[in-house]
Amino acid sequence: MKKADILIIGTGVGGLFTALNLPEDKNIRIITKDICENSDSFLAQGGICVLKNESDYESYYNDTMKAGHYENRKESVEIMIRSSPEIIADLVSYGVDFERDENGFVYTREGAHSTPRILFHEDITGEEITSKLLSAVRKRGNITILEHNAMVDLIVEDNVCFGVVAKDENGALYNIFANDTVLATGGVGGLYVHTTNYRHLTGDALGVCMLHDIRLENIDYVQIHPTSFYMANHDRRFLISESVRGEGAVLLDKNGNRFTDELQPRDVVTAAIREQMQKDGTPHVWLSLKNIDEETIRKHFPHIYEYCREQGYNLPEDSIPVVPAQHYFMGGVWVDSDSKTSCGALYAVGEASCNGVHGKNRLASNSLLESLVFAKRAAKHIAENGGSAADDDMTEKYEKLLESKKDHFLLRDDYTTVMRARIEKAKEEHLNGK
Fold first, then answer.
1. Pairing mode, if any, of strands 216-217 and 332-334?
2. Which DSSP state fits 326?
3. Is-contact 202 216, C-beta < 8 A?
């Protein structure tokens, strides 16, 4: 039996930033299903949004709401936008290197943004942010990370979470009890045939919460990214950042004709691509970067440039084949503005959670920001109000709880089966426009 003050499941930006904002006198344990670097946070290319100044607030708010089809939680949107300058300052303090010129930060633009407001580091902003946070976490003596350890179930009694049942790298089950538990397990891309996500991201947080009647929200709200690099029989799709279209790239049909406005919200562009593929009878469309000079491509999108070269395409001369792929999950475990779930002592952050910021469709480059903002709020709430699952002498209670549920806390695949069925149904409805 293992114990911790705070247990965090996942090592994306949500889990890492939660840990960094908790008191250093707390015993914090983090478990992650794979290695720390294999989180979708590392894969984020485009950037992170920020409120540039007060005059940009109304525009930023309206862009977020419009992209989300006005189904966003207004309070959450306001919290995210107002918190963004503080979050960027935090990231800079951890050594995150955003693009700058002689005037300060350089901003880029993506689809559905009415103005450039996105900070970036080349085309690997997620890697830049997440790697710096991970480095900071690894320097904290009060934080222990266990890789290749997977959450199997929650330990819940009377709607209070006492920790999780986990499986180590050898397949052995063990229990981790904690005063507070944070779910930061990422999205659901591993359930899809075409996805930009890592395959081990299979909606684990949603699955275990379903088993304990912990509230979920909008699990049919799945975002398809319009442009992933098309390759037949490829496991994970390589993302072609929306920033490429923000800098001037255009979508072409099989005859080389432009067929849509590339800077519309992602769901609109995705629908246009699918319609064009059906008209052309092709498995992909083409993305042309001829409107972007090679120097800009090399500087802003060096990894995309090199990846395309490896696949035999020279930018900007050659158009590249692109196809929509599952990219992001707007739904998740329902949380309030402090990232609290409907279960006591249980929090959720990042893509596993649903605080309502994104509504029905996420605005580009809001994901990293949303994760960081609400991770910090979760940590603050835990620091000020945590420990609700513990008292001065919990050891005996833990043991009795475990004994009473020993037949329940067993390794099982039913949560994955249930979640896969629910997500597949939601996906079908989403693709059919329901």
1. antiparallel
2. E
3. no
> H or E stretch including 16?
helix 13-20
What is the signed CA dihedral for 109, 113, 119, 123, rounded to 10 degrees?
Answer: -50
Q: How many residues can be counted in the chain? A: 434
Closest by Cα among 248, 247, 258, 306 to 285: 258
Q: What pairing do the DSSP bridges indicate for beta strands 100-101 and 104-105?
A: antiparallel
Using CA atoms, how far apart are residues 169 and 34, in angstroms rounded to an integer? 9
Q: What is the DSSP string of 22-82?
A: S-TTS-EEEE-SS-TT-SHHHH--S-EE---SGGGHHHHHHHHHHHTTT-S-HHHHHHHHH
Q: Is 266 in the active site?
A: yes
Evaluate whether 203 touches 423 at the Cβ level (below 8 Å).
yes
Among candidate residues 266, 362, 377, 422, the one labeled active-site is 266
pLDDT < 70: residue spans in the chain: 1, 234, 387-434
**Token pair in block for residue 22:** 């908790």
Bridge partners of 173, per DSSP, are: 167
Residue-wise pLDDT for 327-359, tens only, equals 999 999 999 999 999 999 999 999 999 999 999
Query: Exposure string (b/e) for 196-221, b if CB count within 10 Å is 16 or more?
Result: bbbebbbbbbbbbbbbbebebbbbbb
Taking only the tens place, the pLDDT of each residue in 147-198 is: 999 998 899 988 999 999 899 999 888 889 999 999 999 999 988 878 999 9
Q: Which two tokens stand for residue 410?
A: 């067993």
